[in-house]
Amino acid sequence: MEISLKTLNEFVGVGVKWQGTFEEAENGDIREVFAQFKEDVHSIPNRVEPQVIYGLADHNFEGGFTYYLLVEVASIGNIPEHMLTLQVPTQTYACTEYSEQSELSIQDTYMKLHQWIENKTYELDQFNFTSLEVYPNDYNPKVDQPKMTIHVPIQSS
Protein backbone atom coordinates (compact mmCIF):
# COMPACT_ATOMS: atom_id res chain seq x y z
CA MET A 1 0.00 0.00 0.00
CA GLU A 2 1.54 3.27 -1.14
CA ILE A 3 0.86 6.35 1.00
CA SER A 4 1.70 9.94 0.10
CA LEU A 5 1.05 13.46 1.30
CA LYS A 6 -1.14 15.77 -0.74
CA THR A 7 -2.57 19.24 -0.22
CA LEU A 8 -5.94 19.98 -1.76
CA ASN A 9 -7.05 23.58 -2.19
CA GLU A 10 -10.24 24.94 -0.71
CA PHE A 11 -13.36 24.41 -2.78
CA VAL A 12 -17.12 24.79 -2.62
CA GLY A 13 -19.10 21.62 -3.09
CA VAL A 14 -22.76 21.01 -3.85
CA GLY A 15 -24.36 17.71 -3.01
CA VAL A 16 -26.32 15.61 -0.58
CA LYS A 17 -26.01 14.50 3.04
CA TRP A 18 -26.54 11.07 4.55
CA GLN A 19 -26.49 10.46 8.29
CA GLY A 20 -26.68 7.10 9.97
CA THR A 21 -24.97 4.32 11.87
CA PHE A 22 -21.92 2.36 10.80
CA GLU A 23 -24.17 -0.69 10.48
CA GLU A 24 -26.50 1.15 8.08
CA ALA A 25 -23.51 2.20 6.02
CA GLU A 26 -22.21 -1.37 5.90
CA ASN A 27 -25.67 -2.53 4.79
CA GLY A 28 -25.52 -0.31 1.70
CA ASP A 29 -27.42 2.83 2.69
CA ILE A 30 -24.67 5.12 1.36
CA ARG A 31 -24.51 3.17 -1.91
CA GLU A 32 -28.21 3.91 -2.46
CA VAL A 33 -27.74 7.63 -1.78
CA PHE A 34 -24.63 7.61 -4.00
CA ALA A 35 -26.54 5.98 -6.89
CA GLN A 36 -29.31 8.58 -6.62
CA PHE A 37 -26.77 11.40 -6.44
CA LYS A 38 -25.13 10.17 -9.64
CA GLU A 39 -28.52 10.38 -11.36
CA ASP A 40 -29.10 13.92 -10.04
CA VAL A 41 -25.58 15.32 -10.43
CA HIS A 42 -26.26 16.67 -13.92
CA SER A 43 -28.76 19.12 -12.44
CA ILE A 44 -25.97 20.91 -10.53
CA PRO A 45 -24.85 24.04 -12.40
CA ASN A 46 -21.24 25.27 -12.64
CA ARG A 47 -19.52 21.92 -11.95
CA VAL A 48 -15.74 22.21 -12.13
CA GLU A 49 -14.61 18.59 -12.54
CA PRO A 50 -17.47 16.45 -13.84
CA GLN A 51 -15.29 13.33 -13.60
CA VAL A 52 -14.87 13.54 -9.81
CA ILE A 53 -17.24 12.97 -6.89
CA TYR A 54 -16.13 13.71 -3.32
CA GLY A 55 -17.27 11.76 -0.27
CA LEU A 56 -16.70 13.58 3.01
CA ALA A 57 -17.11 11.70 6.30
CA ASP A 58 -17.61 13.38 9.65
CA HIS A 59 -17.73 11.01 12.64
CA ASN A 60 -19.74 13.55 14.57
CA PHE A 61 -21.94 11.41 16.81
CA GLU A 62 -21.73 8.23 18.87
CA GLY A 63 -22.19 5.08 16.80
CA GLY A 64 -22.47 6.81 13.45
CA PHE A 65 -21.44 9.56 11.13
CA THR A 66 -22.49 12.08 8.52
CA TYR A 67 -21.45 11.51 4.91
CA TYR A 68 -21.60 14.17 2.21
CA LEU A 69 -21.45 13.40 -1.51
CA LEU A 70 -20.30 16.48 -3.40
CA VAL A 71 -19.10 17.86 -6.69
CA GLU A 72 -16.95 20.97 -6.85
CA VAL A 73 -18.61 24.06 -8.31
CA ALA A 74 -17.10 27.30 -9.63
CA SER A 75 -19.98 29.30 -8.16
CA ILE A 76 -23.21 28.56 -6.38
CA GLY A 77 -26.09 28.81 -8.81
CA ASN A 78 -29.62 27.54 -8.50
CA ILE A 79 -28.95 24.26 -6.76
CA PRO A 80 -31.67 21.61 -6.56
CA GLU A 81 -33.88 21.92 -3.47
CA HIS A 82 -32.78 18.66 -1.84
CA MET A 83 -29.07 19.56 -2.10
CA LEU A 84 -26.75 21.65 0.05
CA THR A 85 -23.51 23.57 -0.27
CA LEU A 86 -20.39 22.89 1.75
CA GLN A 87 -17.11 24.81 1.99
CA VAL A 88 -14.15 22.41 2.10
CA PRO A 89 -11.00 24.16 3.41
CA THR A 90 -7.46 23.83 2.09
CA GLN A 91 -6.04 20.78 3.83
CA THR A 92 -3.02 18.48 3.82
CA TYR A 93 -3.80 14.78 3.70
CA ALA A 94 -2.20 11.38 3.98
CA CYS A 95 -3.68 9.53 1.03
CA THR A 96 -3.77 6.17 -0.68
CA GLU A 97 -5.60 4.47 -3.51
CA TYR A 98 -8.26 1.84 -2.86
CA SER A 99 -9.84 -0.45 -5.47
CA GLU A 100 -11.08 -3.99 -5.93
CA GLN A 101 -7.44 -5.02 -6.47
CA SER A 102 -6.51 -3.78 -2.99
CA GLU A 103 -5.30 -6.51 -0.67
CA LEU A 104 -6.92 -4.95 2.39
CA SER A 105 -10.53 -4.15 3.28
CA ILE A 106 -11.53 -0.49 3.38
CA GLN A 107 -11.51 -0.59 7.18
CA ASP A 108 -8.01 -2.14 7.24
CA THR A 109 -6.81 0.41 4.68
CA TYR A 110 -7.95 3.22 6.97
CA MET A 111 -6.23 1.52 9.92
CA LYS A 112 -2.94 1.26 7.97
CA LEU A 113 -3.25 4.90 6.95
CA HIS A 114 -3.75 5.94 10.58
CA GLN A 115 -0.74 3.82 11.66
CA TRP A 116 1.38 5.48 8.96
CA ILE A 117 0.31 8.94 10.18
CA GLU A 118 1.27 8.05 13.75
CA ASN A 119 4.61 6.50 12.70
CA LYS A 120 5.51 9.59 10.67
CA THR A 121 4.72 11.77 13.70
CA TYR A 122 1.87 13.64 12.07
CA GLU A 123 -1.36 14.27 13.90
CA LEU A 124 -4.90 13.82 12.71
CA ASP A 125 -6.55 17.13 11.88
CA GLN A 126 -10.21 16.27 12.10
CA PHE A 127 -11.59 19.64 13.11
CA ASN A 128 -13.67 19.94 9.91
CA PHE A 129 -14.18 16.28 8.93
CA THR A 130 -12.74 12.79 9.40
CA SER A 131 -11.89 11.80 5.84
CA LEU A 132 -12.30 12.75 2.19
CA GLU A 133 -12.77 10.10 -0.49
CA VAL A 134 -12.37 10.96 -4.16
CA TYR A 135 -14.33 8.74 -6.55
CA PRO A 136 -14.02 8.62 -10.33
CA ASN A 137 -17.29 9.40 -12.08
CA ASP A 138 -17.35 5.93 -13.70
CA TYR A 139 -17.71 4.26 -10.29
CA ASN A 140 -21.10 2.55 -10.09
CA PRO A 141 -22.02 2.16 -6.40
CA LYS A 142 -24.74 -0.41 -7.15
CA VAL A 143 -22.44 -3.01 -8.75
CA ASP A 144 -18.78 -1.99 -8.40
CA GLN A 145 -16.49 -2.58 -5.48
CA PRO A 146 -15.42 0.85 -4.21
CA LYS A 147 -12.57 2.53 -6.06
CA MET A 148 -11.34 5.79 -4.64
CA THR A 149 -8.48 7.78 -3.27
CA ILE A 150 -8.74 7.97 0.51
CA HIS A 151 -7.56 11.21 2.13
CA VAL A 152 -7.15 11.57 5.91
CA PRO A 153 -6.58 15.16 7.10
CA ILE A 154 -3.33 15.69 8.99
CA GLN A 155 -1.13 18.37 10.50
CA SER A 156 2.46 18.44 11.62
CA SER A 157 2.96 17.53 15.26
Automatic annotation (TrEMBL):
Protein name per UniProt: AraC effector-binding domain-containing protein
Domain AraC effector-binding per the UniProt entry, residue ranges: 1-155
SMART domains linked to this entry: AraC_E_bind
Gene3D superfamilies on file: Regulatory factor, effector binding domain
Pfam family, one: Cass2
InterPro entries: AraC_E-bd, Cass2, Reg_factor_effector_dom_sf, YobU-like_regulator
